[in-house]
Each structure stands twice: as C-alpha cells, then as structure tokens.
Amino acid sequence: MIESNELATLVGRGLSDFLSSRSSIVAQIGPELSPFLDFSREFLSGGKRFRAQFCFRGWQAVSTGRHASGQGGLETVIATCGALELFHAAALVHDDIIDNSDTRRGAPSAHVSFAELHRRSRWDGDPTTFGTGAATLLGDLLLGWSDELLDDGLDQLDDRTAARAARAEFNRMRTEVTAGQYLDILEERAWRDAADDEQRRRAERVLIFKSAKYSIESPLALGALLGGGNEQQLASLRGYGLPLGIAFQLRDDLLGVYGDPAVTGKPSGDDLREGKRTILIALTREALQPGARAILDELLGDPDLDDDQIGLLQATIRDSGAVDQVEKLIQDHVARALSALGEAPINDDARAHLRGLAVAVARRET
Q: Which ranges of the sequence are coiled-coil (predicted)?
C-alpha cells in the first residue's frame, strides 16, 4: 500500500524526470532561458500535492487487479498526478498575475521574480511589464507541459476507453477552471450588476468552477476513470468530492482574510485588497445595515488598504456573524462528503485515506 509520503516522493520524482526531459529542449535554445527552468523546478518542488493525492486515491478506490497491475496502471496514474500538479502550478502563476499578488508560498510570485531579474540586469524598459509578460509565458508553458505529461501517461494505458474518458475529464476541468477564473475577475468588477440577494449565488458559482471541482472532484474522477470505475463508483466519488471541494475553498476564503502571513505565505487580508467577492463577503453584506454595507463596498478592493483598514474590515466581517456561518458551511459540506464516502462502493483502504484527506483540507492553515 502506497502511503501519502511515498506518493509525494513518486510524484515529485516523476515531475523532476519530466522537467529534465523538457529542460534539455529549452536549454538548447539558449542560456537566457535558464530562469524559466529554475523557477519551474523550484515552484514544483513543494506544495501539499492535494490534487495528486485525490487522483491517486480515486484510482486506488476502484482499481481491479487488471487495472492496477496491467501495463501503465501505476505509471499512468503517477503521470496524471504530475500533470495535475503542472496544471495547478500554471493556474497559480496566472492567478497571481491577475490578482497582482506579490507572494506565493512565502516567496516572490513568478511575475515579481522576473521583474526583479529585469532590475538586477538593468535591462531597458519597464521591469513590471517584463515580469508580467515573462510570467504569462511561464504559465502557458506549464499548462502545455501538463498536457504533454498527461498524454505520456495515457499512452502507457492498455484500456483505451479509460484513457479517452480521462482525457475528456481533464479537458472539461481545464475549460471549467478558465471559465471560473473569468467569473472571478468579473465579479470583482461587475458585482453591482447583481441584486443583493444574488451575491451569494454568484459567489458560489465562482467557488465551484474556479476551485472546488478542479481541486478535488476532477482529480478524484480522473483517478477513478483510469482505474476503470463504474458509473456508481464515479457518482459516489463525485458526491464526496464536490462538497469537500466547496469546503476546501471556503477554508481558503477564510485564510485569505484572516490567515497568518507566517503560515500562509501571503499578506494578511490579501483577499480584501484584491476585492474578492466570496461567499464570506456575500454573507457579510446580507447581515450589515445599508450604511455599514456601503463602507464595506467602498473599502473592498482598494490595493492601498493599510493595516488599520484591514483590521476594520476583518472586525466588521467577524462581527456580522459571517465567519461563524462559513465555519458552519464547512462543517456541513464535510459531513455531506463523508456521508457519500461512507456509502460509496469502493476499496476500504482508499476510503480510509479519503476520510483523512477530508479532515486535512477542511482544517488546514495554509
């Protein structure tokens, strides 16, 4: 039985080998491209690898002897785990550009790193423009590499029907995430177009398609499809994965407002400066009187908010009862996920791992 730490090692080794194979192509073009390669390796060397964990446990949950031991079984699922990590890295690079986030995991974001390279090198032009352009291309490269690694893995799989189904799931995930990202930036700017009683529904739609499905549901489904899962198994895993993905993002929304920078690697209240129209904010607005709601709307999204203003917003949100409501939503969604898991016709070892993952993603501090 492969445990979580061993899986992380296998995925990390697979990513390292894949990056080495692609790096040799890039290196032949010229030494100036070494920052691309260095940042890719550094960015992909860490992280919690939740998506890889869920993909592998989805495969383990349904795998028959034929799928587990046949040609490409384990090799394919490890490659797919790596493809998900590459896809996630690409999404984070692009997300940091869109949100003007200076840090990621306690280190400079990609666009900030490239801007600093420009400054140190004393090149012509604007460092910020260069950093944004270079990071955009890095994100595009990582996105393309995620497709290549997935195809490498699927090519090893005997079951071509399973391979085609997994490819279709990955393609749908990619489209949904992009659509969700657009809805996210749209809500930051067009939220006034929606009635107050529509704010929560629209925030939930962003949460589901930008994060919840691709963080947990799709990785689970990808693994189960590779393992030859039947319709009942897939439906059960999705019934576990989507509510848990919602809980995952709700926790992330709380961390974006109240997280400790020393733990999260991002400034406290970062989501407030970015103007994220989350369920937390929607619930806060529902509870506030018109005057207080107007102040919240005026301050939210100001990139120059100082610590006192951040503290005021944090207190307003907490005093409104919205934090307690979100904590209750997290508990309810985790309970729904665990209920679906308990009834799922899957391998008991995988069920135990998935139960532990549910606790980990709902209670995490980063």
A: none
Q: Are 206 and 178 in contact (CB under 8 A)?
A: no
- Residue in 229, 227, 233 with CA at minimum distance from that of residue 70: 227
pLDDT digits over 150-184, tens only? 999 999 999 999 999 999 999 999 999 999 999 99
Q: How do the domains of the chain map onto residue ranges? A: 1-46+71-157, 160-366
Q: Which amino acid is at 248?
A: F
Sign of CA dihedral 366, 146, 202, 333: negative
CA distance 174 to 105: 23
Burial class of residue 178 in the structure, from the number of CB atoms within 10 Å of its CB (0-12 exposed, 13-18 middle, 19+ buried): middle
Position 1, amino acid: M
CB-based burial, 157-169: b 16+ in 10 Å, e otherwise = bebeebbebbbeb
Give me the torsion for CA of 127, 130, 173, 352, rounded to 10°: -40
Mind giving me the DSSP string for 140-195?
HHHHHHHHHHHHHHHTT-S-HHHHHHHHHHHHHHHHHHHHHHHHHHHHHHHGGGS-
- Quick one: which of 215, 180, 177 has its CA closest to 337? 215
Rounded distance, CA 242 to CA 168, Å? 18
The 8-class DSSP code of residue 104 comes to: E
Cα 282 from chain centroid?
Answer: 22
The CATH fold of domain 160-366: Farnesyl Diphosphate Synthase (1.10.600)
Stated pTM of the model? 0.93
